[in-house]
Specification:
4 helices, alpha+beta
């Protein structure tokens, strides 16, 4: 019997520890605590997905509304989503190196973009770190002016939906 293929499903609060472990391994200092991920899932469950295979969490895609040109501070709880958020922000996206490829991230991005559009948003944003701007550029994101500017190792990017 063939192994079940990886599939995206809605993230749950109980996934936060696995999400944090993946983020720490993939993002180093940009990985965040399980509490931060649990909060994002609670604030915008419709924008949070995990990639699961055989009961194991092998990836995540965390996103939520946020004001254009900015991003939440790394590893800080926000309490609530800002009123008047005008952009759907890709907070974090990680796929285990063992299963990368096959457009897994692209599928999650498409799912989240449809959700954001259905909620009236017309733009996605993100902060690319560690050279990930090349990956996000292939998915239609382009560097955009952010206020305030981000550190040299971070690129604020946007994409219309």
């Amino acid at each position: 019997m063939a192994a079940e293929p990886p599939h995206w499903r809605p993230a749950r609060a109980g996934d936060a520890d696995a999400i944090a472990a993946l983020a720490a391994a993939a993002l180093g200092p940009y990985g965040e605590s399980a509490q931060v991920y649990a909060e994002r899932i609670a604030l915008a469950p419709e924008g949070c997905l995990v990639l699961e295979q055989g009961g194991a969490v092998l990836g995540h895609f965390i996103s939520h509304p946020w004001p254009r040109g900015s991003a939440p501070e790394v590893d800080k709880l926000v309490g609530s989503l800002p009123a008047g958020s005008d952009c759907w922000h890709v907070h974090d996206a990680v796929i285990s190196p063992d299963i990368r490829g096959g457009n897994l991230a692209g599928r999650a991005l498409d799912m989240v973009a449809m959700t954001a559009a259905g909620r009236g948003f017309d733009r996605l944003s993100l902060i690319a770190v560690g050279g990930a701007d090349r990956f996000w550029s292939r998915h239609g994101f382009a560097p955009a002016q952010a206020n305030p500017p981000f550190a040299p190792d971070k690129v604020y990017m946007e994409r219309p939906i």
